[in-house]
Structures are given as C-alpha cells and as structure tokens.
Amino acid sequence: MTRDQLLQAYHDMLLIRRFEEKAGQLYGMGLIGGFCHLYIGQEAVVVGMQACLEPGDEVITSYRDHGHMLATGMEARGVMAELTGRSGGYSHGKGGSMHMFSREKGFYGGHGIVGAQVSLGTGLAFSNWYRESRNVSLTYFGEGASNQGQVYESFNLAALMKLPVVYIIENNKYGMGTSVERASASHDLSKNGAAWGIPGEQVNGMDVTAVKEAGERAVAHCREGKGPYLLEMKTYRYRGHSMSDPAKYRTREEVQKMREQSDPIETARKMLLEQDVSEAELKKIDDEVKSVVQEAADFAQKSPEPEESELWTDVLVESPAVEAR
Amino acid sequence: MGVQILMPALSPTMTEGKLSRWLKKEGDEVKSGDVIAEIETDKATMEVEAVDEGKLTKILVPEGTEGVSVNSPIAELDGGGEAVSQGAAPGQDTAAPQQPAPPAAASHTVGEVAKQAEDNAAVAERGARRGEGAAQGGRASGEAAAAPEKDWGPTKPITVREALRDAMALEMRRDKDVFLMGEEVAQYQGAYKISQGLLDEFGPRRVIDTPITEHGFTGMAVGAAMTGLRPIVEFMTFNFSMQAIDQIINSAAKTLYMSGGQLGCPIVFRGPNGAAARVAAQHSQCYASWYAHVPGLKVVAPWSSADAKGLLRAAIRDPNPVIVLENEILYGHSFECPTSEDFIVPIGKAKVERPGKDVTIVAYSIAVTWAMQAAEALAKDGIEAEVINLRSIRPLDAETIAASVKKTNRLVTVEEGWPYANIGTEVAMQVIEAAFDWLDAPPVRVCGKDVPMPYAANLEKLALPTQPEIIEAVKRVTYK
Predict the structure, then answer these.
(1) How far apart are CA B399 and CA B300, in angstroms?
(2) Among A105, B306, B321, B449, which residue has the fewest nearby CB atoms (within 10 Å)?
(3) Reduced DSSP (H G I as helix, E B as strand, rest coil) percent helix, strand, coil of chain B, to 5
(4) Partner-chain contact A246 B47, CB within 8 Å
(5) In CATH terms, is domain B2-86 a member of 3.30.450.40?
(6) What Gene Ontology molecular function terms does this protein carry (chain B) (predicted)?
(7) Closest in B108, B261, B314 to A313, CB measured
(8) Is residue B26 among the annotated active site residues?
(9) Chain segment A141-199, per-residue pLDDT in tens
C-alpha cells in the first residue's frame, strides 16, 4: 500500500471503530433496540477488501454489517439513523441494524439469516456473468456460516459457471458462543472450496496491507474470468456476538492480548509513523472522524421516527399496468 | 467539563440492573475499551466498557447497588479536554427514544436541511430509475391495463404446456433481462417438457440447467433479481421449493420492505404444485396456503391454457416476486386460448367460468375442472351453480366473489389443499366479512383430507376432493 492508501485505510478503519463505539453507547442509552452486532476488531478486513474494488462491484454480507456499509461509502448519519429506527435511516427505519442497502454504493445488505447472503452474493456474481461485465461480487460471511449447506451449494454453482465472486470468510473464531474448533471439522477454512477447485488463502485479517494484497489477487482472478476465489480472514471481534452477549466463552486475557498485540488500527498507525507521517496528521484524522461520528449520532437522535403511514408502504412495488382490473 | 457515564442497557429487554462491581476507582485513567464495571442483567453478568477516554473523577453509584435504572448516571469522567469528545456527553442533547423529535426545519442547521433535501432527491431518483427500468422492458405500458375479460379476438386450442412455453418465449423476446433457470430446463427440454425449444431459441446464457440444488440456485436467482434481472425459476415440482423457502420468504418477499423501497425482487417461481398421480406423500402437496400467507409475495394458480399464458406473462412483467402454481395433470389438457400477441391476464382478477344463480362455487387450479363437472351434473338436477376460477390467490379478488354470493346467497369452496387454514378458509372468511347478511347457509369447504397423501390408488382417490363431495356440499348449502 502507498502512504496515501494506508492513510486512507487508517481513516476508514478508525471511522468504523469510532462509529461502532458510538453505536454501542447509543445502545446502552436505549436509543438503539433489538440486535446490534459490532464490528470492532475486524475493521482491516472490509477496509482492505474495499480498496480492491472498481465502480459497479457488489458487496453483500451478514448482520455484522455496519463496517461494510461505511467502507462502501454509505454515510455514517444514514446508517446511524437506521440503527435508531428513524426516518433518516437508509431503510427509513424499517430495516434496522441488520437490513440496510444502497444500490448506488453497490451494497446489497445486511442479511439476518446465517449463510443466506452467500447464495445471494453468488447471484450478484451471476448478474455480472449474465451481463458480461467485468464486475466482481464480494460475498462476506463468518466462519459460523461456513457450515451452512447453501454455502457449498453456492460454491458448486459458482465454480461450475465460473462466476466472478470472492468468498470472504471472516473467521473471528466464534460463531456466537461456539468456537470454530467446536463447530467445524475443517481446520483450514481456506481449503473449504477445494473440492470444487476454488483457490483459497488464509490471510492475516488484522493487517490491512495483507488483506489488500490478497484481495487484489482474488479480485484479479475473478476479473480474468477464472471463477470464484476464497479468502479466509483470520480476525477477531473484541465485543460479544451482539450487545447482549456477555462473551463468557473466552477469557478477558485472550481479548486483551489481541487488542494489545494485533489491533489493526494500532498496526496501521505504527506503520504510518514509520513512514514519517506526523502525530499531528494522525490527530487531524482522529478529530475529523470523531466529528463525523458525533454528527451522525446527533442526526440519528434528531431525525424523526417514520410516519405511521410507512407501515403500509414498500410491501409490494406498485404496478398499475399489471394490477389494473 | 465532565462526561457522565450512564447505566447502559445491555439487552433488548433490560430496564434496570445491579451494579455488581467497579473495576476502576476514582482517579484512575480510563481508555476506550477498558472494562470499568460489571453489571448483572436479568440474563447475565456483563462487563461495561468505557467509550470515552479520561480520568474517572467520581463514582456516583456504589458497587452492590441493585435496581439501577438504565440511563441513570453511574460515574463521571473528565474528558481530557478534547472538544470533540465532549459532544458525546450523553443526556445533554438527547431526545428520548420514544419521543418524536422536533420537525427537521426547527432544529436542523441549514446544511442538514439541505442534506435532507438531497436525500429526498436521491430517493426520488431511485424511484425514477425503477420506473425507467420498467419502461425499458416495456413493462410500464398500458397494454396490461386492458379490461381482463376483454375480447382478445380469435382463439385456438392449445395445451397448458404450450401456453406456458409460449408465455416464456414471448416475454424473453421482449425483455433480454428475462431468463429461465432450473433442473433439466435446457438440454432435457424440461422435466415436464414445459421449456421445449427455449434453449434453441435463446441459448445457454438465458436457459440455464442447474444442478439439483434448490436452496443454492434459488438464492442465486434472488440475488440476480436484486440487481434488476428477471429470473424465472422452475421448480421441478413445488415440493422441492421447501428446500429454498427461506430464500423465497426471507430474501425475495421481504427485501423491498426492509430496504425502505430501494431494492425490489422481480422474480417468478413456477412449477407443478399439488398431487399428480400415485406419487405419494412427499410429492403431492399444495403450497397455495403456504405462500399466500406471506406479505410481499403474489400467488397465482392457472387452470386453463388462457390462464396459464396470460398469468405467466403478467407474473414475468410484475416487479414483485410471484409464485405460479401449475398443475401437472393439466399440462396436457387443451383449452381455447387467444392467439393475439398481446394477450395477458392481470394478476388479482378472478373469472366467472360459468354463470349461475343458486350457489357460488369458488375453486382454483385443477379444482376448477372438478367444479365445472359438478356444476354440469347439478344442472341436470335443476341447480344452477356459478363457478368462479380464482386464478389469483394473492391478491384475492374478493369483490367478484362477494358480488356472486350476494346473488346466489350460498358458498362452496373446492381445492385439493389440506383443510386447516386453506384458501377456502380465507375465501369463506372474506365472504363473511363482506356479505354475511346475504348468506342463507354456512359456507362449506370441499378439500383434500387432513392426511399425508397415500400411495394406494383407492386411498389417493379418497384423499382428494371428489365430485360426489362437491355435489353433496352444494345440496347442503341449498338445503336440497
């Protein structure tokens, strides 16, 4: 990564970190309800991968999705206002934390059923194939989802049809409270596509430069029409599975060790300082990010709740021509 | 200026909790992410992490305190003098979650209002794009708006099988985004020969053989539809759609709503539904009631060749997910069908197949055949039955049904699905709601028996509605 690319990545990761911390805070204040899955610790994965994309490429993921939205360029205020269930949110308050979309930014959700986005993401790649475009679908899922049957149905379809899809397993070690060792007989998830000849790599998902490097290889493979590619990102989430998870299945020391030794943002910060970026320059980014997040939080609280009439809209696309009697 | 740390809500249902332990004491420096306290909720003991940095200046709630309300201050933090972090001070500028915030113009800065206008413009643009997409495919034109039972001119007899094939071919010719995918649809020419000739005309990119992998290829097709393509997914039979029902309901039907109208899913799921002949329990089931239950889906069930051709064309042009429930036994039956290139049947409109004054028989799919046969037999006894072919299960044409019942004052429903919460139940309830005072007898449902489909020929016959049962039901409601 060039100095400028790394600076951008540092900014983007920090934005996700601060956004998620703020979301946790608003959840604590009762302003965000229901499920809320934070991405803290995993920032390098989505930021590194996004740096490999071109306009028109698609991104789809599970319910731990705020980081992906911000990385695709969706606005923090619209995402935060969706978390608070307000009309200024991306889905006008009707989707919530797990369901936001932006066709303009190539973000196709935000899906709440574990593994379902893998088939859908394969469908995004199918569209690229059908339209003969050079675009690529980034399809993210956790190591927990990697045990779902439809994941392997999708691998087969993508390999059979040579669809341009990068499957990205974000292995943060725990599917809710079950460690990967207790859930998966496969110990190297990057080989999970081997039966279909899908090339795979394990990547240090805590290092944004390593993610970008692997991502470039994967995306180039897809753009050349060689079919799907699999990346297993070794990463870690610092928080519980969702806000109400006390995370008793792992030790405090384990979490602390990851934070102290492998934090993706600290790692990027050190690299930047070694490349003669000044503390003042980094401080400027910190301040800028903080004010964006604060503005988002303010907007998310000021934006009104959706109109009651919104209850009945968007169930079906109205189509007078076909509906007419 | 200090920042107050508030008692956090740590689960969707928590209103208060016990502050069981402080892990930091007054005077300690706190970094973002540090565990500062432990809290017992109704479900678990949770750790509270600091969000802001600074020095813990004061503990307001001592450890061991029970019943601490969510959002009450538990400690104070010196924010370290950074102006930006002060804005985080909770409780100062915070609208309570349940209170509607003041109107945008009153409290927002000019910039924010301008931004909101931009957002609105973006939404409008999205809407316009959607409309534009429709126009490109010729879908927004007025042709489908024609009166449904208008005279389409000359007809000729074709089988339901040919009608379905013709509908797909016509729509694929007029819109390059339409494609067919499923098991054996291409090289084999269709397991039931519905897609005969389509591979030759449209090629392998638009007529796609899939492996036997319903969950995967349904999800893939739904994903493709989210980008604006118009897949037709053929299930070899609807029994196999259960492998994929999560994608149909959770992904196809709900995404438009969950996205606030941004992302629709124009897709058709079609294939034979219900009992064929002697294929036993796992291959003989009606899904009308299952799919009709779901907001965000449309469900149609053609009976004749004209239904099949017209409804499938409307389904393919529809911007929503549509389930087309066909019937294997009807595939080989011939009916008169308009030859006009423009012929289409709008979704949501039932058809009176036979007028009558004594009783209304409501049926769909192959049950229309049974109802028509029964009506003929009843006519010999001097009972004139009006037979309504629903064609569309959801939306349901309650008006046509109610108008008929107001004339005949009697209702019998016929279908092969199981009795519990079936379509007849819904029809009867809608009639009760709309025309209770016109009913001269309680409605009667004739339907499949409440058992899995047996294999033995005699038992299978018993499990399905029979003509004597329909005649008996009509006699019951007409007190004959």
Answers:
(1) 17
(2) B449
(3) 35, 20, 40
(4) yes
(5) no
(6) metal ion binding; pyruvate dehydrogenase (acetyl-transferring) activity
(7) B261
(8) no
(9) 999 999 999 999 999 999 999 999 999 999 999 999 999 999 999 999 999 999 999 99
